[in-house]
Structure formats: C-alpha cells, structure tokens
Amino acid sequence: MNNAYVHGYHSRENIRLQDQANALVELLHFDTSYPAGSRVLEAGCGIGAQTVTLARNSPNALITSIDISADSIAQAKRNVEAAGIKNVQFRQADIFDLPFGRESFDHVFVCFVLEHLSLPVEALRTLKNLLKDGGTITVIEGDHGSAYFYPDSADAHKAIQCQVELQGRAGGNALIGRELYPILTRAGFSAIQVSPRMVYVDSGKPQLVEGFTKNTFTAMIEGVRDAALAAGIVEPRVFDRGIKDLYRTAESDGVFCYTFFKACALKA
Ligand SMILES: C[S@@+](CC[C@H](N)C(=O)[O-])C[C@H]1O[C@@H](n2cnc3c(N)ncnc32)[C@H](O)[C@@H]1O
After folding, report:
1. What is the largest CA-CA distance in the chain?
2. Could you tell me the distance, in angstroms and rounded to a whole number, from the CA of residue 13 to the centre of ligand 1?
3. How far, in Å, is the centroid of ligand 1 from the Cα of 238?
4. By the number of CB atoms within 10 A of the CB, which of 74, 84, 162, 223 ranks highest?
C-alpha cells in the first residue's frame, strides 16, 4: 500500500462499509453485469461489501477479488461464503504488485479505492495492463465536495473538511470523484463515460436516513475525530457541533445530498 488507509480496519469501519454497500446497491450496481465465462478482477475488495452484489449480478462470471489487507480478505471470504456465492476467489495482493499476467482479465471493477492512493493514475495503468484489448474498467468513487444538506451548517462543512484534509495528508484524495474522467484519460483508457449518481435523502426514505446519512456518511466523518484533534486542524467544540449538525439533517425535516461518480472505460 503506498499510503495509510485513512478509515482503518477496525470492526466499526467494517460495519460502516457494509451499511454503505447495502444502502447503495441499486444506485451503484444496477447497470453492472458481466457475461458468462468472463474473467473479472475486483481490485481493493475490502471485506467484500461490493463483491457479494457483483457476484450475484454476474453469477456466471469468474471474479477474482484482491485486497492488500489480509484481515479484510479473511472477512470477505466469510461474507461471500455466508451469502452462498461460489464464483469468487480471493487473493491478498497489492494493486501495484499483482500476481497476474498481462491481459489476464476481461473486466476490472474498482470501488472506493483510488481515493486512498497517492498514485491513482499509476494504479489505473497497472490495472490496464491486466486487461485484454477491448476489456473494460468500472470505477466508482465519492466526492466529499458534493455533500450539501438542510439545515446547512458551517460547522458540519468544517467537520467534513477534516476528513478531506486528513485523507490528503495520508496521500489520498476525498474529492476524487470529479477527477475520474481526467485520471482515466491520463491512464490511457478510451470511450470514458462518467455518470454522476446522486443520493438524495429525506425522512420519506427512512432506510437511506439510517443506512446512508447516519451510518455511512456521518459515521465516517465522526470516525476521524481523534485524528483531526490530534492534527490540530479543528477545535473539539467545532467538530462536535458539526457532527451534531450532520445528525440533525437526519431528522424529520432534514435533507442530505451526496454524489458518487461511476465511470466505465475501454482498453482500446
Ligand atoms: C474504502 S475500502 C473499499 C472496499 C470495497 N471496495 C468497498 O467498496 O466496500 C478501500 C480498500 O482498498 C484497499 N487498498 C488500499 N490500498 C490498496 C492497494 N495498494 N492494493 C490493494 N488494496 C488496497 C484497502 O485495504 C481497503 O480494503
């Protein structure tokens, strides 16, 4: 791994990743399915939160899911087994040093990984080498600059900015969603299509209030409290008010909006 993974690997983060995946299955996955017999690489699978959906939507594709974290791979195996899925194999591996030959895969899928890498274009070039000519890459990333909400709160924006700042210091980029087109272009992909996927949450969507506003987004920002205070980038009072205000957007008259970016591109 070429930089520290800002969210860490503790169990609360694993639950958050699962909540995120559950809340977003339709929005992010409805248009991804791979043909029977095709070989698919999922790079940075984590605990398998997306793997289960990928495998269900493409039951006859052969999916290889890798992650740099041995613990995450072990958990991913358990999650996929518990879901009764048989078409996934796991390997612990680093995206920058993968144990596969050139042109081993028909498709590559990468979700919420590039935001943590200091060399995302190099990662994409490495993955491109593993694709056959005519193969595709699908990349999904968020962009924390896309978070807006009612009631608005300067403190909530400051708390979010702590995550952006810390992720940047760790070598990542929490605003990478808007950059998918340029980085895929730089990595040499063609026919790049980026589609913004907006999550809109009000109390008429109680599952998203819980699964996204509270348990995915606000939990993620809340999780950087100690690091943000230790780095001296925010006053404790300001951060805590910001978190309170983010939870306030989950109340009966609150609204929370966020945009993910999903890109598909071709190795010509
Ligand atoms: C936010 S998690 C996303 C996991 C999963 N794709 C999902 O959407 O739930 C990012 C994952 O990327 C992995 N990762 C980071 N750098 C990596 C690298 N160089 N090679 C492989 N995996 C990496 C981390 O270990 C972590 O599991």
Report:
1. 55
2. 12
3. 30
4. 162
Burial class (CB in 10 A: 0-12, 13-18, 19+), 47: buried
Distance CA 230, CA 194 (A): 37
> Does any ligand 1 atom lie closer than 6 A to the CB of residue 111?
yes
Q: Which helix (H) or strand (E) holds 141?
A: strand 131-141
**Interatomic CA distance for residues 191 and 184, integer angstroms:** 10
Give 10-residue mean pLDDT values along the chain (268 residues). Answer: 62 76 87 97 97 96 98 97 97 98 98 98 98 98 98 98 98 98 98 97 94 95 98 98 98 98 97
**Ligand 1 neighbourhood includes 202 CB (under 6 angstroms):** no
| Among 188, 178, 184, residue whose Cα is nearest residue 261 | 178
pLDDT of amino acid 8: 74
Residues 184, 121 contacting (CB under 8 angstroms): no
**Tokens 């993955």, located at residue:** 127
Q: Angle, nearest 10°, between helix axes 154-169 and 236-248?
A: 110
Distance 123 CA to ligand 1 centre (A): 12
CA atoms of 130 and 65, how far apart (whole Å) = 14
